[in-house]
User: What shape does this take?
Amino acid sequence: MQLSNSKNHTDDYTMNGSVIMAPESPVYFPSPLVFSPRSVKTPSSSPRSTPPKLSMVACPPRKQKETTSVPDSNTALKRKRPPMLDLKLPPAVAPWSSTTAKIPGKEHEVIEAEEDGVYSVYCKRGRRGPMEDRHVAAVDTDGGVRKKAFFGVFDGHGGSKAAEFAVKNLGNNIEAAMEAVRSGQEGYSVERAIRDGYIKTDEDFLKEGSRGGACCVTALISEGELAVSNAGDCRAVISRGGVAEALSTDHNPSQANEFKRIEALGGYVDCCNGVWRIQGTLAVSRGIGDRYLKEWVIAEPETRTLRIKPEFEFLILASDGLWDKVTNQEAVDVVRPYFVGVENPKTLSACKKLAELSCNRGCLDDISLIIIQLQQFVP
Assistant: This one.
């Protein structure tokens, strides 16, 4: 059983003076004076003159992200991630494995790992600054039979501390909650166990007082059952006989259901430099951390469970650095030649190909992805 994950440690930082953030950054710190685009001063005019038209600052149309679960996906807008810190690997997740992993130095721009016939991991630092993405990949075997596995991609913003914390704790917290499921406790389910694991991880991170947050997408495999969960805009896509299907929904404040939830809690969603943001600040509506926006940015994941079938080929977990530039079906089409009809598939080359495709299309963000060969877990 091998474990592959990543971690870095960077102290919290303070911002002094005037700070200029990239327009597409998910973390945006507005100036103390915030003017609404709808507040327009109308010059005086005579009764006979034609009233001047109000000048409105509108969000320009942007290429929409793919999603399958939200009916109002036409309103979904894209955003990018800001540069922050560098990259190291955290300790192994205790309940899964204690395998030692290579810890890269600050000069490393790429992290890659592969367990033949099971999964491949590829992480590439973006062009804006140090890496904020993290990942975990752990497979447990019983008598040579792979029965349980946990995979996750964590996309940090405002620093990498939340992503690092999730790598070290989320799998453990889910595993602890799963004990109630195995014991047959009334009213408990896999979905509830995963939800409790996410929320406990969020609560524990907030107690540390660190800033920043992280979007998460995870896959828990146990006894032939697959449970995919996400909070934020990391995405999971499965290949069913070559047809791509998203198993997660991107959580952006521009989505109708998220927009209504935020406003019902007394928050607002505003357009800042062409990106819809909560309180004019954050461009995702769910995730771990973000303590200053916790009233509106929830850690509750959406989970989808299904039985692994022979037609399930592989699962792709990736940060938005990939999905911003590559569609679901394009990703599946790139991976399949490395998988279908190959006696011993090694999908690391496919991971690299996907990252290269996103970069060639102009991605400046960190890119992290895991390809999981589901045939290894068919019951």
Notes: Residues 64-77+109-377 form a domain with the Phosphatase 2c; domain 1 fold (CATH 3.60.40.10). The CA atoms of residues 199 and 299 lie 6 Å apart. Residues 6-58, 67-79, 84-94, 96-107 have pLDDT under 50 and may be disordered.
